[in-house]
Amino acid sequence: MLLKHSMSDGIPFVRDLRFAYGVLEQVAPNVRRLIARNPGPFTHYGSGTYVLGRGRVAIVDPGPLLSEHVEALLAELADEEITHILVTHTHVDHSPAARLLQERCAAPTYGFGPHLAGRHQVGEDVEAGADLDFTPDIVVHDADVIEATDFTVEAVHTPGHCRNHLCFQLREEHALFTGDHVMAWATSVIAPPDGDMGDYLRSLSRLLPRNDALYLPTHGAPINDPRRFVHAYLRHRQLREQQITQCLTNGIGLIADIVPLLYAGVPQLLHPAAARSVFAHLLHLLERDLVQAEGAPSLEAHYHLR
User: Fold this and answer.
1) Alpha carbons 88 and 111: distance in angstroms, whole number
2) How big is the CA angle at 43 (ends 31 and 259), to the nearest 5 degrees?
3) How far apart are CA 64 and CA 49, in angstroms?
4) 306 residues of the chain, pLDDT tens digit each
5) Sign of the dihedral defined by the CA atoms of residues 159, 95, 127, 186, in that order
6) What are phi and psi of 85, to 5 degrees?
7) Checking DSSP bridges between strand 145-147 and strand 175-179, what pairing results, if any?
8) Is 273 in a helix, a strand, or coil?
9) Cα–Cα distance list, 182 to 132, 150, 179, 189 (Å)
10) What's the Cα-to-Cα distance from 157 to each of 88, 146, 228, 252, 277, rounded to whole Å?
11) Measuring CA to CA, which residue among 145, 129, 241, 228 is closest to residue 180?
12) pLDDT score at 8
């Protein structure tokens, strides 16, 4: 689930993307991409399914449960064999098409695991939606390496957007498939219960010392300056936390009152997602004993500084 903000906070967003639906296009020397026709406020132009290699290929994020997308992918790969299906995480715009693909090919699926419940059970669902039906054939952990015919892929566990989120690095090109972890067009909403702000910030920081030269997110354009983006993402989250803390200092302790102030330029239909993001920040502040909630932490609770 993704959210565009009214201000970039220094993030060098790239929101334009040239592509054609139904056409597998080259995006890196050994990587092609097909974008599904599922545009929206949380998916940008749609979900990008990546194809690694030639002849015997791996798929990254098969996409939503759209038969036209799968048919287009199979038509483009008519003379090639799918040997691996890699899933970054279990949201309905990323993993469900794996089921359709496996009806037509024998490739196993790879992922961190099925969708996981979060620590904070809060009821309302504003996510793009969890794919509760996906369980990988092969469970992949952090630093695991997947060997294909002509290339190797390393898994990087990056919880935060959701607990089972993985990035995958195509080692030969130092290209990291970032799913919803880092994108060029928007920031990622961290929505409890499955999203966790502390995990997300730690996962972002883990990327900084890596040797990735290119990020290929599932939504939007490639990122050619990865470290600049990660630093900007971290600064953005620090600024958002400062803004929330300032609201609490001013006696504004309800999420329903904080959201209109911090997201004044964001359409109302995205405010429920913004509320979840503010909630995630407040939970992170609670975990560091910087904030208190009156009663159990929730979207409706009143918060104040310690």
Assistant:
1) 7
2) 140
3) 10
4) 343 444 456 899 999 999 999 999 999 999 999 999 999 999 999 999 999 999 999 999 999 999 999 999 999 999 999 999 999 999 999 999 999 999 999 999 999 999 985 554 444 444 448 999 999 999 999 999 999 999 999 999 999 999 999 999 999 999 999 999 999 999 998 999 899 999 999 999 999 999 999 999 999 999 999 999 999 999 999 999 999 999 999 999 999 999 999 999 899 999 999 999 999 999 999 999 999 999 999 999 999 999
5) positive
6) -125, 110
7) unpaired
8) helix
9) 23, 27, 7, 11
10) 9, 14, 21, 36, 21
11) 129
12) 53
Confirm if 179 and 165 have CB atoms less than 8 A apart: yes
Give the CA count within 13 Å in the CB-facing half-sphere of 297: 20
DSSP assignment string, 116-150: ---SS------SS-B-TT---SEE--TT-EEE-SS
* Contact by Cβ (8 Å): 135, 104: no
Distance CA 19, CA 35 (A): 8
- Other C-beta atoms closer than 10 Å to the C-beta of 306 total 10
Asked if the peptide bond before residue 193 counts as cis, ω within 30 degrees of 0, the response is yes
Count, in order, helices (H) and strands (E) of the chain. Answer: 6, 16
Cα separation, 126 vs 270, in Å, equals 9
Q: Are 45 and 272 in contact, with CB atoms under 8 Å apart?
A: no
Which residue is associated with the tokens 């929730």?
298
For the chain, list the domains and their CATH numbers: 2-226 (3.60.15.10), 236-305 (1.10.10.10)
For residues 8 and 272, give the distance between their C-alpha atoms in angstroms, rounded to a whole number.
20
